[in-house]
Amino acid sequence: MFKKPEPKDILLIARETFVTDILPFLPNEKRYTAAMIANAMAICRRQISGTEPCAERALLDAVYGKESKKTFAEFASDLRSGTISEITHPALPDQMMAALRIELTVSNPKFRE
Question: I want to staple 106 with a disulfide (CB 3.0 to 4.6 A). Which of 25, 46, 77, 92 is the partner?
Fold first, then answer.
């Protein structure tokens, strides 16, 4: 059987080709838009890698337990209402920071440099 390329690898090749073979030849007024497209492709590739949902699930599991089916929206609601807080979960700030670091690694890796 033929090995199918992974979607993240297809996006990588498409982005590299776009950045190398197309972007440099665009008129100046189109380069910003083209750079945004290239950045969106890079974000999608990192999202496909799947680390972000794992970080979100790890945070929810740490707060509610592994058996819980709570969603991130419910977590946000519990934070706003005070049901979940640093008082009820002392490790919460560190757990949220770890999830944020992973999210930034996906959405804006240069921010962390």
Answer: 46
Rounded Cα–Cα distance for residues 84 and 77 (Å)? 9
Q: By C-alpha distance, which of 13, 16, 15, 8 is closest to 49?
A: 8
CA distance 13 to 26: 19
Report DSSP state, residue 71.
-
At 8, give phi and psi (nearest 5°): -65, -35
pTM over 0.90: no
> Structural domain boundaries of the chain?
7-48, 51-112
Question: CA–CA separation, 91 vs 89, rounded Å?
Answer: 6
